[in-house]
Amino acid sequence: MLKAILDNKTKEKILLTLFVAKEAYARDLVVVFKGNLSSIQNQLKKLERGGVIVSRLKGRTRLYSFNPRYPFKKELEALLEKALSFMPKEQKKKYYTPRLRPRRAGKPL
Amino acid sequence: MKKIDKKTPAKELAAIVSSNLKKHGIEAVLTGGACVTIFSMNEYQSYDLDYVSYAIEYNPKAINEAMNELGYKLSSKGHYENPRSQYIVEFIPPPLSIGSEPVKKTVNLKTKNGTITLLSPTDCVKDRLAAYYHWDDPQSLEQALMVAGKQKIDLREIKRWSKVEGYLKKFAKFAERLKRGVK
Q: N- or C-end of chain A: fewer Cβ atoms within 10 A?
């Protein structure tokens, strides 16, 4: 949907995921989108270098989120919100409705 | 041109780098922790020189030439390294901004090795406070206090900006600490 502007489908998926989930890690994105780890990591790196997203280590996992200091954050989020509102319900449910509530370790999903 | 070595302090190194960039027609503004080092008179020591420049998007070749001339090489991680210096140099994509607002005025600092264009002390404090506001980073609050304690800053402007960012409560904590004295 935003590929024409972002020139990259993976980047669109990453941004939409971060918009709905607030934070994500690379392997998480690989599982959800059945994508390629190196291409996802490459786009995460580009977004981070551009100041759009930031990352921090949590244990041994690098978590990514929007950079609250990115000057166009509000405008970017408005664009992503609009893009999501145009998305078919099924697709939105499958890819962009993450489970954010806790779940005890070991309990089957 | 003065030689760079391990003993070259941040301020002098920034002056050498800034002057060489200018020589190559590159406008770049020093931002981040290096400004804290300069304004806090080395109370805080940053080992990163972060520059914001449009040249990173429009003329990266010129940046590379200017940096290579000083012995800096672009690392695979995207910043410049020099085996003769403990400081790394990074070019951050524009715009020059603090939070949601663009930086409109920068200052020029003259040194024996040239002039550095950098954030004003007031914007430097805002820059540190932004990290404190958004990530609760206590180190950034301390750095903001170091600069505010040693430089003339516009506290009313910082309060206005903090309101726009939605962090008046945290500003009050900063202002209170400043009033009580930094130490």
A: C
Boundary residue ending a domain (B67, B96, B119) = B119
How many Å apart are CA B59 and CA B167, to the nearest integer? 37
> Domain range spanning residue B45?
10-119
pLDDT in tens, A37-79: 999 999 999 999 999 999 999 999 999 999 999 999 999 999 9
**Residue A106 within any structural domain of the chain:** no
Cα separation of A62 and B181, whole Å? 38
Residue-number span of the structural domain to which A57 is assigned: 3-91
Q: Is there a contact between A49 and B93 if contact means CB atoms under 8 Å apart? A: yes
Q: Distance (Å) from the C-alpha of residue A107 to the closest C-alpha of chain B?
A: 32
Closest-CA residue of chain B to A70: B99
Number of domains in chain B: 2
pTM metric for this prediction: 0.86
